Amino acid sequence: MDDESSGWSDFNETPLRRPDQFQVGARSVLREYFSENRERVFFSRQIEVFNEDHYFHWITNRAVRDLVEQGEIVVETRPTSVGGTLNLLWHRSFRYYKRPAARVLSLVEEYANSNIGIALGLQGELMVLEGLAMKQFVLTGRETREHHGNVWRATDHNLDFIVERDGIGYGVEVKNTLPYIELEELRVKVQMCAFLGLRPLFVVRMMPVTWMHEVQMAGGFVLTMKWQLYPWGA
Predict the structure, then answer these.
(1) What would be the CATH architecture of the domain defined by 115-224?
(2) Of the residues 36, 64, 104, 173, which has the fewest C-beta atoms closer than 10 A?
(3) Tens of pLDDT along 189-221?
(4) Which pTM does this prediction carry?
């Protein structure tokens, strides 16, 4: 399983650093949240998303680790049937966590199925394309690195699609995922757009405001959806 649901790689790899005011604030919020939900089991990505209106994912991540190290919440890493691992979290006073933990694991495994991931990607792209079409944007390329004879060769990346309106081309990237787009990938896509003479347009579930600013400074735009877009019937 990838990081779509688990948040495990972030939890394990986010560098340790001296807590700043944001991390201290997140730690206080999480301490209260787990205290108010003493008989619930969460997974780490879930906690990041719950708090993303106020704290970047990596801030929440570090705050969670602080509370684990202080013994205020418990973390248990479990293997999943779809590959990879899942970080489960609960308040230290919760004695009967086994059944709730099993239910959370089962639910995450269901939605971490590769078919669901593919469907989410397609659903996001189709909804964005339909929305652009309704505003008279014309699709000129899909899964491409070429525009008006220019070909991006510096990396193997493609743009999800290219659209045009009023003589202006836009390189569009859609991320219908719980975690953020990788910062390196975002910067590559911005560079691609500059090379191809396009304005970058990112449509994402969520992105840090500092990254949005980078896109804006490059002449681009970010549309955040907040909610993950699921296919009908899923």
Answers:
(1) 3-Layer(aba) Sandwich (3.40)
(2) 36
(3) 999 999 999 999 999 999 999 999 999 999 999
(4) 0.87
